[in-house]
Amino acid sequence: xxxxxxxxxxxxxxxxxxxxxxxxxxxxxxxxxxxxxxxxxxxxxxxxxxxxxxxxxxxxxxxxxxxxxxxxxxxxxxxxxxxxxxxxxxxxxxxxxxxxxxxxxxxxxxxxxxxxxxxxxxxxxxxxxxxxxxxxxxxxxxxxxxxxxxxxxxxxxxxxxxxxxxxxxxxxxxx
Length: 175
Hints:
Blueprint: H1 2-23, H2 29-146, H3 151-157, H4 163-174
Helix pairs in contact: 1-2
């Protein structure tokens, strides 16, 4: 039925244009035809407009979809970047902590070693000092023994039979 009505409309329009052309003189027939054509061409122009609107709507919806996709992907990439940044920061903190603990342990070890070496050095110094004192005493004794003693001192050192020289020895030693 729709097809028949369209045909009727077309036929009516054609008839109307013919009537207009018949009423007007021959010189103006071409203009009337043109005007009739324009009237006839209005309908396809509407269809073209509708098609254009539909196409625009489609492109707009596609653009909106693509924008939404881009936004989604951007959000995802931002989240990924944040995650990776957090993990890298955590790794850096861990490595710093490990380095600090290593430094502390190495420092403690070096301090302990230094203390040990100082203690060793102190004991060596003490032992060498003792041995040096002993040697010095022995050398002094040798020197004293090698010196020629005066006769009075030699007499005092020699053991006497009577106790009288012994008392004099104690007196001489006090002076």
